[in-house]
């Protein structure tokens, strides 16, 4: 829950300035940064949230100290369909080259930090604990310069979440009137974004709202520019452990504006899978109600997690 399994600190640190916009990337397969491939595939819908922890040395720290939330891109209701049709943070990530951008708050002290983006996949989260929600986390080792103020109140991992939290133990295949993301509120000076992308070709540029006023550019669109106050962060590459499949690579980018795309998933009554004779990759979706993609598996076997979701495991 802190920094994923099978991970250890590495020697490098990424230097950033307080206030910099950082972009993290998540991809299904190691080494694949193809923007035409879903960043986190297989209907892994849920919120994306980002935490930081002040540490003495980010190249050795294991994250046992306190964490505070700096960013949240969680949920927004789509006019039709059930919760799986709604806007989610992981849809923003999925259809935007696996990228999510957010600012390092300017009102935190300078020094070393661990940065912990967390994608929470809820496609099987309606099953009773300990089955259900899937957390995809990585930790990045930062040194922040130019900060000010003090560290906000913190939580611990484990400890911040309960397996029965309403945003963790939830069936998203029903109409949702609200969604309560797990964990503490975003710190003042942090930011939230309302998710706004439902498919490839959606508008990946959007602005997040700073808690306490103002806004930040959050998502790179097409060409990447380096903002004047930003130091590019290109060194850390964190590979997740054996139970997950994503790789996250931080890079610094910029930019803005919003719109909404409107794709409604086609509903069918298939339970074992769709029409494809093709093969999904390991950890990919291979069946479930509404699934029209590949029903075979190039690695693993197609296993039913719930009526809406079968996965190559
Ligand atoms: Cu999964």
From TrEMBL:
GO molecular function annotation: cellulase activity; cellulose binding; metal ion binding; monooxygenase activity
SUPFAM superfamilies (alphabetical): Cellulose-binding domain
Entry-linked PROSITE patterns: CBM1_1, CBM1_2
Keywords: Carbohydrate metabolism, Cellulose degradation, Copper, Disulfide bond, Metal-binding, Monooxygenase, Oxidoreductase, Polysaccharide degradation, Secreted, Signal
GO biological process assignments: cellulose catabolic process
Biased composition (Low complexity): 217-251
Catalytic activity: [(1->4)-beta-D-glucosyl]n+m + reduced acceptor + O2 = 4-dehydro-beta-D-glucosyl-[(1->4)-beta-D-glucosyl]n-1 + [(1->4)-beta-D-glucosyl]m + acceptor + H2O
EC number(s) stated in the UniProt entry for this protein: 1.14.99.56
Enzyme class, spelled out: oxidoreductase
Oxidoreductase is among the record's keywords: yes
Family classification: Belongs to the polysaccharide monooxygenase AA9 family.
This protein's name: AA9 family lytic polysaccharide monooxygenase
Taxonomic source organism: Orbilia ellipsospora
